[in-house]
Structure formats: C-alpha cells, structure tokens
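Q: Structure tokens for this one, please.
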Amino acid sequence: QVQLVESGGGLVQPGGSLRLSCAASGLTLAEYAVAWFRQAPGKEREGVSTISDSNGKTWYADSVRGRFTISRDNAWKTVYLQMNDVKPEDTATYYCNALTSAEEPKYNWGQGTQVTVAS
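A: Here is the predicted structure, written as tokens:
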C-alpha cells in the first residue's frame, strides 16, 4: 500500500522560509515525476511545482516561481519544496503526489502539512 507523508510545515512570518519534505512508502519516488500541491481553506487544490523522474526538469506555478524550489535527494527517496520569501497567500495545506504519465495525481492523498504565513 502506497503512503505519502509530507512534513516540515509550520507557522512562519512573511518573508521567511520553510522546507517541506515528501517521503513515500510502498513505491520508489525516483521512478515517478512528483508534484507538490496546496489547498487553502475554501479553495480547490492547485499544483505548485513538479519535478520529472528522469532529467530533473521542473515546473512552477506563476504564483511561486522565483520563490520556491523543488528538488530530490541523491537517493531520490525524498522530494523537497524549499519555500523562500513566503507570503500570506501561501498559507495552505501542502500535499505531494507521484504523477501519472498524464501528469495527474496517481495515489491517494496523504495528510499533508500545514503552512501558515502570518506575522
């Protein structure tokens, strides 16, 4: 059974930084493109960033480009989202997921990790 586990969230002041981690059991993350998503209260879940399985190609939503960086560790067992210069509008629950070839979320969602940006 595949389980996705997100961690690293918390309360951070505007302009601060956080690093989120995504780990998985039951699958090898290195074999998949992986994406970070977020869902703010009352809003639909949205894609934030993706990293490919092969060449490390990345994609960012316009709202986070230049501030967030997605990466994998050398063993490709964890995917990270470095969040810099965070803004109140980044407040959301953040989720990760492996992607299908059609770039859709492949597995059931984990519990996510809450990021709250407030002074």
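A few notes: The mean pLDDT is 94. DSSP finds no helices and ten strands in the chain.
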